[in-house]
Design goal:
The protein is mainly alpha-helical. About 45% of the residues lie in helices and about 0% in strands. It has a domain of about 80 residues. Helix 2 crosses helix 3.
Length: about 130
């Protein structure tokens, strides 16, 4: 019996690299969620799928999500962060302009640190 994972996502196709969606009068501007926040939520969701037996293992999630097992491991390694950091990441606000200040890649060394207190100190130094 094979299990499947369905992801529903709406998107807007832009024409040209700099095309932007027009906001009509009275329409609210959707708030963007930083990529790192979405990845943290995804890591938590994937962990729940494994723990509850919806999927067998990480390899099955990687196959269903069409990502490499290495990339899935990088995402799931966010779960190694201290709970306080995970909460901060989930509730980051998107910057008004420019790139997100925190990336998954910048958190890899922090997540690899086994002590949560050391992780918190590292994040303060990185100004996260």
């Amino acid at each position: 019996m094979s299990k499947s994972l369905t992801v529903k996502r709406s998107f807007h196709v832009r024409k040209g690299a700099k095309a932007k969606r027009q906001i009509r009068e009275g329409e609210s501007v959707p708030e963007e969620v930083p990529r790192i926040s979405r990845l943290m939520a995804l890591a938590i969701h994937f962990d729940e799928l494994i723990r509850t037996g919806v999927v067998k293992d990480q390899a099955e999630i990687a196959r269903l999500a069409q990502v490499s097992r290495a990339r899935l491991t990088q995402i799931l390694n966010l779960l190694c962060l201290a709970p306080e950091l995970q909460e901060q990441i989930l509730f980051f606000e998107a910057p008004n302009y420019g790139h997100d200040p925190v990336t998954e890649r910048s958190l890899r060394t922090v997540a690899a640190t086994p002590e949560w207190s050391a992780q918190l100190r590292s994040c303060k130094q990185l100004q996260i």
